[in-house]
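Good morning,

Attaching, inline, the backbone tokens for the sequence recovery test we're adding to the shared suite. The designed sequence is right after.
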């Protein structure tokens, strides 16, 4: 039974022709001896993959023969072969088909064993996606040095915004018991080039920094290390008080600074390659430097100092907002931009893709491009907190691509960041992510983190080929479904730049009518501002003037509805219901049309999936079909609730031709 456990590393038997094609290119594997744990992992993966795909074993060999795979670094590269070492850096690889002493071989070349591991996964990907393995000439090196997962996993194994079962970290049994699942987790991440993981929730408990938990984290670090993955921890800013018995956590207090330094030293004793701390401070009730009249620089630089002797890094999050500041979307920029240039060299400021909170669509965050003297990280959410949890099929590749390619000031966001982080959607469900298609979001995050210039459509295609089928018609149909799915969720939840219309307790269904939460900036009515006169949040100079946080060209464009991208319209403008849109419809008619279109797209996805029954194994076909039925019902729920509510405030009849809610 296919239960999804193998992710995109299934290596199932290929069609006969393809089997022969792969087998002749992988008759044997030549590698350095003795092999490091990382090189052993690379060789083991190649053997596993070749055996799975072809039914034949690729044995280790010392001499290269026809059809050999050669894993080489500068130390053991064959003479006379010219390889682009200097372009590969520490993590890159080259795959090259060539003749060596008259024998046809494939060279996997890298400067390090981690590069060889990545190159081996790349070769396996090429084999599974039907590349011509006898003419390989590939080279890749990551554009961003830090490619991290952020787990919002609590120490009691609940997962904040997790929809895939309990945390995979079995804290009770660690450090003594090391679940084999940790190795499979490492393999999956290494196959994408993810090189760090923050183990615990940013809403952190101080306990994660106690000696027992450091020992547990160290055990995980040992498992992950051969796969090129460093362990990081979220740190609670008030830990010196809670664990150290100090009276304060003031970052300028010498005793506090000494406590963090000792804590960092203690961690590096057990985890010599510890990545560093991720910190959520003075945000949503978390403690931070502002509790002592200090600012983000004071807090971050204190931790940076504690880590710097060991080469550690502080990821300091910019997701901050406090009640009643007028426009929540402006706060991160207001607090952080003036601090540009003041952070220590080993601090990275981690910024969410948009200024509110992982909505189905947000304009890019105004901090990108606005802090040229500060390394930034882009934070994306892989878990679908606001996009239907793991039940709705939404492929996030296009969302990630949209922000990576957005141009704050002439260069894309991808070039304004040094690091990238994805809030993981991984749990202990058999299929890891809560649904089969949510695996694609983990995959897409990793692939785009490695190379932000990849097209999300290509990433979808290679994922489908490795995960479901290589039959061309089925692949086309699956890719088309996936690519339509992101726009569908925008349409049936928050079209035309609307945002934050969901129910607060759960973040799952619609609740645009809610206006009585304890904080104004949590209320959906605060965000959509719909009334008789129109709908939308005026962020122009007449309103909150959030547009002024963007570079001048964008600020000018966004200040006027005619020059604002229509997909962002109501994010920046409050407009009358009869405002004319490019379609020729009024705003009201367009809004309803988009809600309808979202529902119709999900209905199409359902029938496309139904038509693929013969191409997909029964278990996974049934799992996905059941979820799509839920998604269609919930898309209608969103549409009907939102349209009925907006109608109740606008007082307008449904546009002609609109179906009455079922
Ligand atoms: O909006 C929120 C989520 C919280 C999360 C927070 C954050 C970890 O609903 O669950 O807390 O974002 O990113 O810090």
């Amino acid at each position: 039974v296919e239960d999804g456990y193998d992710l995109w590393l299934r290596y199932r038997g290929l069609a006969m022709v393809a089997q022969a094609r792969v087998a002749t290119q992988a008759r044997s594997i030549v590698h350095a001896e003795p092999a490091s744990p990382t090189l052993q992992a690379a060789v083991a993966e190649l053997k596993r993959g070749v055996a799975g795909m072809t039914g034949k074993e690729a044995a280790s060999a010392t001499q290269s023969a026809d059809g050999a795979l050669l894993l080489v670094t500068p130390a053991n590269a064959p003479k006379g072969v010219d390889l682009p070492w200097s372009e590969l850096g520490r993590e890159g690889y080259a795959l090259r088909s060539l003749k060596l002493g008259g024998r046809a071989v494939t060279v996997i070349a890298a400067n390090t064993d981690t590069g060889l591991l990545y190159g081996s996964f790349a070769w396996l990907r090429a084999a599974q996606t039907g590349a011509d393995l006898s003419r390989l000439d590939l080279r890749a090196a990551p554009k961003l040095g830090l490619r991290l997962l952020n787990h919002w996993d609590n120490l009691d194994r609940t997962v904040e915004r997790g929809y895939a079962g309990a945390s995979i970290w079995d804290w009770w049994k660690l450090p003594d018991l090391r679940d084999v699942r940790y190795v499979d987790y490492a393999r999956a991440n290494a196959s994408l080039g993810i090189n760090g993981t923050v183990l615990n929730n940013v809403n952190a408990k101080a306990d994660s920094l106690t000696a027992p938990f450091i020992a547990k984290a160290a055990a995980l670090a040992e498992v992950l290390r051969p796969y090129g993955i460093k362990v990081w921890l979220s740190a609670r800013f008030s830990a010196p008080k809670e664990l150290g018995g100090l009276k304060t956590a003031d970052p300028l207090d010498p005793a506090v600074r000494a406590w963090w330094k000792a804590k960092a030293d203690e961690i590096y004793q057990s985890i010599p390659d510890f990545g560093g701390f991720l910190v959520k401070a003075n945000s949503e009730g978390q403690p931070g430097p502002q509790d002592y009249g200090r600012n983000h620089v004071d807090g971050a630089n204190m931790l940076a100092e504690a880590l710097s002797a060991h080469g550690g890094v502080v990821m300091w999050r910019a997701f901050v907002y406090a009640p009643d500041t007028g426009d929540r979307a402006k706060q991160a920029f207001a607090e952080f931009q003036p601090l540009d240039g003041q952070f220590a060299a080993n601090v990275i400021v981690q910024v969410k893709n948009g200024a509110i909170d992982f909505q189905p669509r947000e304009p890019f965050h105004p901090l990108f491009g606005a802090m040229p003297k500060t390394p930034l990280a882009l934070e994306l959410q892989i878990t679908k907190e606001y996009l239907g949890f793991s039940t709705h099929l939404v492929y996030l590749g296009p969302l990630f691509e949209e922000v990576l390619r957005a141009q704050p000031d002439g260069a894309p966001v991808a070039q304004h960041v040094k690091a990238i982080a994805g809030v993981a959607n991984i749990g202990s469900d058999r299929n890891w992510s809560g649904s089969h298609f949510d695996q694609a979001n983990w995959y897409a995050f990793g692939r785009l983190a490695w190379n932000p210039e990849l097209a999300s459509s290509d990433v979808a295609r290679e994922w489908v080929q490795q995960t479901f089928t290589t039959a061309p018609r089925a692949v086309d149909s699956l890719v088309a479904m996936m690519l339509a799915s992101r726009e569908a969720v925008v349409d049936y939840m928050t079209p035309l730049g609307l945002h934050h219309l969901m129910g607060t307790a759960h973040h799952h269904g619609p609740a645009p009518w809610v206006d009585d939460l304890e904080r104004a900036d949590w209320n959906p009515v605060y965000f959509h501002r719909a009334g008789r006169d129109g709908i939308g949040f005026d962020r122009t100079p007449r309103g909150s003037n959030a547009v002024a946080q963007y570079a001048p060209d964008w600020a000018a464009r966004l200040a006027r509805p005619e020059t604002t991208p229509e997909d962002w319209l109501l994010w920046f403008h409050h407009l009358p219901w009869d405002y004319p849109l490019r379609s020729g419809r009024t705003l009201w008619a367009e809004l309803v049309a988009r809600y309808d279109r979202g529902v119709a797209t999900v209905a199409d996805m359902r029938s496309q999936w139904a038509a693929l029954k013969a191409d997909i194994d029964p278990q996974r076909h049934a799992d996905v079909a059941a979820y799509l039925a839920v998604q269609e019902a919930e898309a209608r729920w969103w549409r009907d609730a939102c349209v009925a509510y907006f109608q109740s405030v606008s007082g307008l009849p449904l546009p002609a031709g609109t179906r009455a809610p079922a």
